[in-house]
Structure formats: C-alpha cells, structure tokens
Amino acid sequence: MKRVLIIGSGFIGQRLGQALREAGLTATLSSRHRPEGLGDAAWLGLDASRPGAIAQAVAATGAQAVVLVHGPSDITGCEQAPEAAMALHAGIATRLCLEVPAVRKVLISTDNVFDGQAPGYDEAHAPCPANAYGRAKLAAEGVLLTADPGALIVRTSLVYGYEPRGPDRGWRNFFMVVADTVRAGQPVQAPVDHWNTPILVDDAAAVLARLVPGGTAGLLHLAGPDRASRFEWGQLIARSLGADPGLVRPVERAAGRYACRPPNACLRSLRLHQLPELSGLSISGLAAGAARLRPLLEVSPR
Q1: Does domain 3-159+198-225+266-283 have CATH number 2.60.40.420?
Q2: By the 8 A CB rule, do 241 and 293 touch?
Q3: Lower CB count within 10 Å: N or C terminus of the chain?
Q4: pLDDT band at residue 162 under the 50/70/90 scheme
Q5: Is the pTM above the cut of 0.70?
C-alpha cells in the first residue's frame, strides 16, 4: 500500500501527511479550501459531502487507503449545530463506505465519545458521548465498523504541538494558546477540573503513519502517558518556557468554552503496546513534549 488520501487538511491531517511521506508513501491532503502554509504538499480540492466526490478523489489519486480526519472539530460549535455535525461526520463515513468499499479505511475519532465520569477509558469501555461532537464521531465509528470489519478507528486524546500564527488559523491548540499568551506576559485561564492525556502531534502522526498502511483493525486508543488538568499542564508549559506560572489562572470548567467537554477526557490503551508495527516508537510525556517544542517557539514571533 503506497498511496493514501487524507480527507481533512487541518492540524492533524497535515502532520500525518508529512509522516506518511517521510515513510515513503504518497499522501494527498484534501479539503474544501487549500489551507495556508501547506507548502508543496500534494493537495486536492474536495467537498466530501457531495455524492460521488470521494470516489472521484480516490480514482484521481490512486489511493489504496483513506483517512478521515475532517471537521467540524470545534466542539462548542458542534454543540450549537448538532445536526450539521452528525451529517458531516456520519454522512461522510457513509459515503466513503458506499463509494469506495474496497479501500483501507481509517477514522480519527475522539475521547468525547465518553462522558468523562470515570478517571480514564480504554478500548473495552462502552461509549457514552459527552456532547454533540462525541455523538457524531461515535455514529461515524459505527458506520465504518458495521460496513467494513477491516476498518481502523483511532480515538485520540487532546492533540497538541507547534502551529504558526496566521490570518485563517482560527483557534489553535491549547499548548500554543498558553505558550503565546504567557510569553507575552499576559494571563491565561485554564480549568482545574478538566483532565486530559495529551499527545504530541508528531508522536500521534508517527504512530498513525505505521498503522494506516497496515492491517490493524477495530478500536484503538492513542494518548500520551501523563494525566493532567489543563491548569497543571498550563503551569508546566509556562515553566518550560521560563515564564511565570502564576500567569496561568485557575478557573472552573463550567465557566468557559470547555463546559461541554467531558471532565475526564483521558484515554489509555489495552492494544497499543502489543502491536508489532509500533515496535521502537515511544510517546513523549508532557515535560518531554514541551522540551521538544521549545526550539520551535524560540524562533517563532510572539
């Protein structure tokens, strides 16, 4: 398997495309609009909700595998438009199965398929979505697993990493928001009661680049080794940059944009370390992840 079509050209999709190319595969990103800063990466304009569009894209690229990492991924926005979220996530999964049943199918899903009442969740836990985004992703999971027993569903925890500024970047990942704010000497709020197992996007992409062309199927959880509240993590980010950790101000999850998230958005895996194709790979903890990102931040404008 040498050719992969990635439906979604955002933060995770771009890093995955890069990792696949570094592994010797041909990866084509696709989305409605070409994202800023894509460089010379192969990209295809695609409205995946249009009938026949996925089949045409697969034919044009010769893709033997398709990865769904498309939006909408704004969890608060999905809560305000649940029907649209369901139509796009479950609807595009349905079109993928109908239009190109023979390709390898991989869905990047979410920790929001759980309600967050337990401290953490592995693949054996029964899902109970926390919000409209989680319900839409869970529906997409069901579509793929019902139609194709060989499909792979990868649920990720909070993915973070370096993202440059730009006029169309929108809301960036939590690490970058905290890093930019405290480097400017400004305070930033972080919930004390919202727990995650964050994973560095480069580590997630490295794992996925080995799994996408392989034969692993079913459910798989992909998360970092450290469980931390956003407040604790925010203070770690500040300290790693030599900034005042006191600039990270504690708030309650219900007080802001995280209100609709599960309180414990934490994943662990029963399968990940048993997969032979992942031999030799490791996933950074939060301190190591911050150290890996520091050189990029030091050359980035504040």
Answers
A1: no
A2: no
A3: C
A4: very high
A5: yes
